[in-house]
Specification:
single chain, alpha/beta, TIM Barrel
Length: about 325
């Protein structure tokens, strides 16, 4: 175990970095339209992907620098062999307070029990339609039944609170906004609605396809009156709402396009091929993999991370004329 090195990682704007998202694969068994092209994807070579031993070592260093929350992502993280032992190794890191995973839930019926026993605390599930045909249109896979089974399995083994993430797209699934709220009430889930961002596989994003957080709120509130809840922490990305009638479940609205929350950002990302991304929309990356594999000392790796964090952007430029979308899609960056 590495000793805590300093109280926190802080960027040049005074934001403390507490949250690291670790992608362990760029591969996925779904082809969600907002995330990955349907065909022509070039996977990273195995030699380019960080090993579990490398990822664990780097995670220990990040935690020693003040990171308190790790989230394992992909691609689809449960596609990678050995993920249970990897989760177990992360769970044993001294100083770590929260360990979560984001998944499409396809493999959860088989994995939920082992994930819970390995030390995973909670889970987020990407699901963008509750209608079989629409689900298949969005993911290119006929698998809604499996995903719903996965949600049940996550609840059975107490990987809670469970968040179900819906990327809301105009003319595609906006008609299901209230349906998701009903589902959250029925199953006692946190339904999180995410504005559509310019990270889609086909590169067809436009502002016209964005359903704003305000519109999402109004649609739900008209059917199920909502009450604002306090944030869990100051860098909370979602505005939280409970149901005014006291029903179970919760609503979260994440509006990075129409209501940016960059000023309180506490997050950085490590891609499966070992690149530090200081913002989801970064146009540059910091090659931690090559530093690690060059035989750098612990102190050199720490200093590289500290220097990368100091270059974190003040915010994204989605709403500015000079905005340029990243070359990598969401599946390559890590959700």
């Amino acid at each position: 175990m590495l000793p805590l090195y300093r109280p926190s990682l802080t960027d040049s704007y005074g934001r403390q970095i507490k949250d690291l998202r670790i992608s362990i694969t760029d591969r996925c068994n779904f082809r969600c339209v907002y995330c990955m092209p349907e065909s022509g994807v070039e996977w990273k070579k195995k030699s380019e992907i960080l090993s579990y031993e490398e990822l664990t070592y780097l995670a220990e260093i990040f935690v020693s620098l003040g990171v308190t929350k790790l989230r394992v992502t992909g691609g689809e993280p449960l596609l990678r062999r050995g993920v249970i032992n990897f989760i177990r190794s992360l769970a044993s890191i001294q100083g770590l307070e929260d360990l979560a995973l984001t998944t499409n839930a396809y493999f959860l019926p088989e994995y939920a029990e082992r994930l819970a026993k390995s030390g995973l605390k909670r889970i987020s599930i990407s699901i963008d339609s509750l209608k079989p045909k629409a689900f298949e249109l969005l993911t290119k896979v006929n698998a809604l039944g499996r995903v719903l089974e996965g949600i049940d399995a996550a609840q059975k083994y107490n990987l809670t609170p469970i968040k179900i993430n819906m990327v809301v797209m105009r003319h595609i699934n906006e008609s299901e906004i209230v349906d998701f709220a009903s589902f959250a009430r029925e199953k006692n889930l946190i339904a999180r609605y995410i504005e559509y961002m310019p990270l889609d596989g086909p590169g067809e994003w436009s502002r016209d396809l964005v359903v704003s957080g305000r519109e999402i709120f109004e649609k739900i509130n008209a059917v199920y009156p909502l009450m604002l809840l306090s944030p869990n922490h100051k860098s909370e990305t979602a505005k939280r709402f409970g149901f005014a009638d006291g029903a179970g479940g919760e609503i979260g609205i994440i509006a990075p396009v129409t209501e940016p929350f960059c000023g309180a950002c506490s997050r950085i990302r490590l891609t499966a091929d070992g690149q530090i991304r200081t913002c989801l929309f970064s146009l540059s990356e910091h090659n931690l993999r090559d530093v690690l594999r060059s035989g750098a000392s612990l102190e050199q790796i720490r200093q590289f991370i500290i220097n990368a964090v100091l270059k974190k952007e003040d915010g994204h430029k989605i709403n500015k004329p000079d905005f340029v979308a990243p070359e990598r899609t969401m599946s390559c960056i890590g959700g």
